[in-house]
Design a protein that fits this description.
The protein is mainly alpha-helical. It has helices spanning 10-31, 61-76, 80-96, 104-117, 162-173, 175-178, 182-190, 193-204, and strands at residues 122-125, 156-159. Residues 129-141 have a biased composition (Polar residues).
């Protein structure tokens, strides 16, 4: 006669399944992100094909920071079409690249640059954003979905810079790899806006 609970307590399987589901959601957070190509650039779609890295010896920082610097420049002069284009191309690049442990510092360098050079998140009245703000700074809930919940005009929404959101989703999607590395722990230790956004995304998923 088989021993009862020989394979563990009944709740163990459900707990393991829940953990796998959470890990899967985190890993897919970046792949499910979508920054559409601006309509004015549709005719150039073929020119925006991205190429992935193929070796741990390839530095990621120059490519990542190139995208980020162009976004910061577009933000400085409020060129929304360019900001949206950068987000589209950068998001596609991040979806394709392979992260090796030796290149985790490049990701942390990107996060530091982005949070040092982009506007902080803030709360505003629901429905106050204009259509022209789509893609880059639209009001969203922290997990990336729609933030409308019908609570009325007094409801506050988080307005989150598009590039900050993208790099935070990148880090969370790679959390299993980066979590215990010294460079990432140093980033968390430094505190600031990134840490608040990071924990908000993590808890929402």
């Amino acid at each position: 006669m088989a021993e009862p609970f020989a394979n563990g307590w009944p709740g163990d399987a459900r707990e393991d399944e829940s953990k796998r589901s959470i890990k899967s959601r985190l890993r897919n957070l970046l792949s499910e992100s979508d920054y559409p190509l601006p309509s004015s650039n549709q005719s150039f779609r073929r020119q925006f094909q991205t190429v992935s890295n193929t070796s741990p010896h390839q530095e990621l920082a120059p490519v990542f920071l190139g995208h980020a610097r162009l976004y910061v420049l577009a933000d400085k002069y409020d060129v929304r079409e360019l900001k949206n284009l950068v987000l589209h191309k950068f998001c596609n690049t991040l979806k394709l690249f392979t992260l090796w442990e030796s290149r985790i510092a490049d990701v942390v360098e990107l996060v530091r640059f982005v949070y040092d050079n982009t506007p902080p998140s803030y709360q505003h009245e629901a429905g106050a954003a204009s259509q022209s703000e789509a893609n880059t700074d639209q009001p969203v809930n922290i997990s990336g979905g729609s933030s409308s919940n019908g609570q009325g005009s007094n409801h506050k929404e988080k307005k989150w810079d598009g590039l900050r959101k993208l790099v935070t989703c990148l880090v969370v999607s790679k959390l299993e790899m980066v979590a215990e590395t010294r460079v990432f722990l140093d980033l968390l230790h430094d505190g600031g806006e990134f840490v608040k956004d990071f924990w908000a995304v993590l808890l929402a998923n």
